[in-house]
């Protein structure tokens, strides 16, 4: 049988397979690069970068839950300048598409991050983190307001020619609305999802485990929730969706593709097996070849045909969302960022 | 800050050769994995996936490599059952296989006789960390609280091989909780409990009789010509073995002797803080091996943070180090021990 075609395209990024290492779990590639050949991955996403260095949160930063992991790392990162100086050159030589995850606490900061990264060799795309649950910069996260997500996407779109991915937060009322806002802002893709907010309490000490009380839940525990989010988002936008949440095995990844994701990212799974990304690539390959399926892209959204009418019955407002063209004009002044729209 | 000095870590499987209870809740597991046995440096650790755990418990568990036997590709882990993961580990039988990732982390810095400088990245300050200050024989102190002895056992073998004398101060709540004394290096010919079979996959001969080689006063001096002299001081909180008291009481007496060039410590946070204070008092540089909850073990996730003392002071901003990659062994100057435990 002919070998299966695993290649996928997200924006302008041509990936040799649909498997991405998720932000914050894979450092800057070199840490895991000591154990595996990262050039075999579809792409890697860096730890979230901010304009200034961030120390991160005091320990403890990790707490294991049933099939899950709560983290409160708090965006510890060396800052934009150090990233460009110390990490980007190495990343450029890795032979794998690199997506830089950026986090800002104002529109201006996102723009500055994006424009400073514009000319940096080896940076193929930006993933805009509007959802990090750990930093309380100026109140509510951007993600909780579709309008704010639209503005961030549109503003970054104006200053970057690189592939623009908006990373969605699941901790919102209607994730599909946020996804549409990102699409209208000009995002080339959305990644879905970031961690779910949770809490751990230490019964011995009778207080919360984490200094910031809330922490982000990831791992297999969130997989069904993330699948639902991907399903809803894929129904609401035309741009590609990167599915994230609890993917540990090839089977998990395939489920996300079938739900409508064009690619998948693996986070916590890397901690269980440092080779998880490669195992998933190989597993997808055999799944396709054993079934005579030509390409990974043939799987995308294939489970959706079987949804019937029931899929919408538990839906939130996303399913009754107005056609986005009209909605765009209602919600946002015409012309705002539209020229950059993620048509593809 | 340096990452680990030794070989790159590898993800592979290890076969259980032996998994034996050596005390209440305390086990010694011998594993076969040629790479780990050959490449691990004292103080490094392995990140172990509990077999059969499926996805719960989800994460790997870190354990110090306690001893290696490169000639037969075996290594030892000494562990205490404290929760679900270690409980599952204790149920493993010879022939079972488990995933190991390692060797990981920055291990102990060996004393270099006559050499100056402390922290290899210059973080040791103005020569204050110089191991083997002055001249004459270098003698170092190893300080273990409970199963903190595990990484120090491998260190003691390395010291022994390179002819560095040491004093090993070992403490636990009670005598039955003292594990690993039988794994200390023995000079050839000495009537040693473990002669010739350290880390051998199938230890022959009698099981360790607790305290068999430790005189009632808790001080044992190896007197062979074949290796450097070393002493073992045993301290228990309940006095059931060796001297009654805290490991740090015994350490204080050792440091008063004035001939200790460097101290290595592993154990509970409170003990490490006290050892660090004593190091300061007696002007003896101290390296500590720390523990923190870990996810990746590779330095990527930033989950295993410990507050950095020097870096914070230097930059005026709080900074953190990664126990898995910048440690687990640190010079006490590098880390803020008040924040651990
Ligand atoms: C570098 C390093 C080396 C270690 N070497 C050894 C060793 O040689 N022998 C040994 O017995 N133990 C060692 N530990 C500690 C060991 O990793 C934990 O005891 C183990 O992970 C507990 O797993 P569990 O599932 O049984 O317990 P859990 O159910 O996860 O937790 C039970 C208790 O253990 C504590 N704990 C959990 N994870 C850790 C951790 N990573 N570090 C410290 N405490 C933890 C928790 O606070 C809790 O009180 C080491 C830890 C590190 C970081
Ligand atoms: C330790 C840790 C750090 C993370 N850091 C970031 C980050 O800096 N930026 C970001 O957008 N997402 C971050 N994430 C979220 C992951 O990229 C991913 O969206 C989430 O963990 C869900 O996927 P998973 O279940 O496969 O881990 C982090 C997750 C973890 C576990
Ligand atoms: S455990 Fe991931 S950085 Fe240390």
Quick tags:
heterodimer, A: 344 residues, alpha/beta, TIM Barrel, eight-stranded parallel β-barrel, four-stranded antiparallel beta sheet, 10 helices, 16 strands, 17% strand, globular, disordered C terminus, B: 341 residues, Elongation Factor Tu (Ef-tu), domain 3, Rossmann fold, Dihydroorotate dehydrogenase B (pyrk subunit), domain 3, 3 domains, eight-stranded mixed beta sheet, seven-stranded antiparallel beta sheet, 6 helices, 17 strands, disordered N terminus, binds flavin-adenine dinucleotide, binds flavin mononucleotide, binds FE2/S2 (inorganic) cluster
Runs of chain A with pLDDT <50, length 5+? 133-137, 310-344
According to DSSP, the number of beta strands of chain B is: 17
Number of strands of chain A: 16
Order of helices and strands of chain B: EEHEEEEHEEHEEEEHEHEEHEE
Report, as a whole number of angstroms, the end-to-end distance of chain A: 31 Å
CATH topology of chain A: TIM Barrel
Number of helices of chain A: 10
Tell me about this structure.
- With 344 residues, chain A is of the alpha/beta class.
- Chain A has a single domain, classed as Aldolase class I (TIM Barrel, Alpha-Beta Barrel).
- Chain A is built from ten helices and 16 strands.
- In chain A, the strands form four sheets. Chain A has an eight-stranded parallel β-barrel, surrounded by six helices.
- In chain A, helix 3 packs parallel to helix 4, helix 5 crosses helix 6 and helix 6 runs parallel beside helix 7.
- With 341 residues, chain B is an alpha/beta fold.
- The longest helix of chain B is centred in the middle third of the chain and has 13 residues.
- At the A-B interface, strand 5, strand 6 and helix 8 of A face strand 15 of B.
- The structure holds flavin-adenine dinucleotide, flavin mononucleotide and FE2/S2 (inorganic) cluster.
- The site of FE2/S2 (inorganic) cluster has 13 residues of chain B, from loops.
Briefly say what this structure is:
The complex is a heterodimer of chains A (344) and B (341). Chain A is 31% helix and 17% strand. Chain A has an eight-stranded parallel barrel with strand order 3-4-7-8-9-10-15-16, surrounded by six helices. A four-stranded antiparallel β-sheet of chain A has the order 5-6-14-11, with no helix packed on it.
